Amino acid sequence: MKKRFFMFLFMLLTLFSTVAYSETTVIVAQDADAKTLDPAGSNDVPSHRITIQIYDNLVNRKDGKLVPGLAESWTQVDPLTLDLKIRKGVKFHNGDPLTVNDVVFTLKKVKEAPTMMSFYSDIDKIEALDDETVRITTKKPFGPLVNYLAHNSAGILSEKAVKAAGNTYGQHPVGTGPFKFDSWISADRVILKANPDYYQGKPAIDTLIFRIIPEGVNRTIALETKEADIAVDIDPMDQGMIKDHPDLKLLQKPALTMNYLGFNTEKAPFDKKEVRQAIAYALDINSMINAVYMGAATPANSPVAPAVFGYNPDIKAYEQNLEKAKELLAQAGYPNGFKAKIWTNDNNIRKDTAVIIQDQLKQIGIDAQIEILEWGAYLDRLIRKEHDMFLLGWTPSPDGDSAMYAVFHSKNHGSAGNRTYYTNAKVDELLDKGRESTVPEERENLYKEAQTILMDDLPLIPLVYPDNNVGMQKNIKGFELDLENQHKLYPVSKE
């Protein structure tokens, strides 16, 4: 009897160990923690890389085209009216069914979110016509509306879960997506579990872990030691090593991102265009690309990247001209230069870029001190307008409105995207007309004109269009590199 009991116990333990062993865990290393897991709570890439796994959108983007998501279809009834048919049989992670009321609640919430108002402010009404149709009415024709429904900020929420959690919802997210929230250790990791009831089928990954590893070299080491399966934003100096490693692979291609040096245009001396232009003429972008990006970037001639609709290829980029820079500083009343600060977060590329800018500005008499801030504090202090100069990037969807409206329209000062606090009535007019038009050729011309003005005014200096890259173990299959650097991991498997 005892023998049979121990044999049974042994089989049971073997079964449990086999189940545990067969579970698939994928660890993703990224450089910063999420600010919140409420998709409309913050418009930053580290947050959205995680929330995109938890939530579904009404509309998805695939190969540059808009395709159905939680909305099976949509119809532009008239220039002001969009109807969406909501998919049936979808469940939230708490077991509740998705309803049109959840969709209406989500869109109303994101419309009022301070960080997202630039995307959705032209929406007038959101209503349920019946138990499967949601109608969005805009104040005026709104060309990019469907494009913004595919933005990560519009991930559909459970009204019940949001109201139950109150102010703590960002730490207790509930979506309909392929992965469910499990736990969050601040500044260390976020753990997600597969959603067995996902409407497209259970993911091949059982546990998905986002590890926070700020230093690029440490993310690469994590790949080498197999502590990470995937690592985003591989430092240029490590890319060759990953390419040559027998167990690793590197995916890389041009992205939609524009990395820039921004100014607080409401603060002297950066309130003067001549000062901003002088700084642009002081910079040698090619040396920056060689030293910092190891060639994995191209010089920027516009705040809009070439792969984005509305890009203006005819604008000439600023080239280093120290005499011209000194003349402009003298015209602005600063013949001997001035002292200022360059802010950056703990990101190797930005820190190295700051050092090069610091060195190049010395040549025209500007004494720039570098201040490195933690990511969350960095964003918060930009909103409080405490900055002089700052290094940041902007990753839009592939539409000129997404590339410029949030960043430059005077309605969007602060957390909505305009962190330079730039105001220009003509730019506002062009961007307003661009989003009101539904004629592609007209929109393109408006955006090109806006870029011409912006590259003269220079509230920010577009530095480079960096390549997008991800390193991973060779046994990771099905990974697709996203142009917006926010990679959906539902298709991924691990051999």
What structural keywords apply?
single chain; alpha+beta; twelve-stranded mixed beta sheet; four-stranded antiparallel beta sheet; 20 strands; globular
Structural commentary:
This protein is α+β, with helices and mostly antiparallel strands and 495 residues long. It is 34% helix and 24% strand. It contains 16 helices and 20 strands. Strands 1, 8, 9, 10, 11, 12, 13, 14, 15, 16, 17 and 18 form a twelve-stranded mixed beta sheet that branches. A hairpin with a 2-residue loop joins β2 (59-62) and β3 (65-68). The relative contact order is 0.15. The model is unreliable at 1-21 (pLDDT under 50).
Brief summary of the model shown:
With 495 residues, the chain is of the alpha+beta class. The protein has helices at 2-22, 45-54, 100-112, 117-120, 145-149, 159-165, 216-224, 236-244, 273-282, 285-291, 322-331, 348-362, 375-383, 400-408, 425-436, 440-457; strands spanning 25-30, 59-62, 65-68, 71-78, 81-86, 123-130, 133-138, 179-185, 189-194, 207-212, 230-232, 248-254, 258-263, 297-299, 338-345, 366-373, 389-394, 460-473, 476-477, 493-494. α9 packs antiparallel against α11 and α15 packs antiparallel against α16.
